[in-house]
Amino acid sequence: VKLVAAHVAAEDQPTVKERLLSQAVTAATLYVAPEFRGEATAQLNDALRGTEPALIFDRALARLPLDDASATHLSQLLDNSDNKELRWLALTALIAHGTRSVDDAEAVNDPSSEGAVSKLRARAVANKRWAWEEITRSDRSNLEIRYLIDGLTFNDEGLEGLSDKYFRIAPELWDRLSNEMAQRTLEGIYPMWDISE
């Protein structure tokens, strides 16, 4: 994480840069020992905020637990960016941070299909139990399920108690869904947030 934070801006290939940032965010939020997670995410917050190319770095920044400076940065991006996908991701991150509410997402006038699924993701961030029920009990489209899973796992707030539910619901999902959809859903909602020694 330190290496990526210190040197990723020097990488000249955008796809490599995106991959490195994605892996660093995943490492900092899931694999770094809990007592060092704050330090790892702080290093990435500092390294990613305001770095060019902004689109790549802002996408990665939105996936981190935000510090106040990064929340301010994403709030400004939300107000000024023309990139709809990035604005939705920033709003979702701000909802996860507690700076914005799900009502802000509901108030966005975006009749596109991206707007509809992005609202689902934002609502899932704010209401994990609702998201869990929608993912495991509804007949939503594959795209809707993907965005709901993203919202459910966007951060680890509100996920307490879902690990046991996962193991109870898994056989039912295998019976009810196609093999591909069951596998994708179960991989997506696997309780990575609850991994311990």
Automatic annotation (TrEMBL):
Listed name of the protein: ERAP1-like C-terminal domain-containing protein
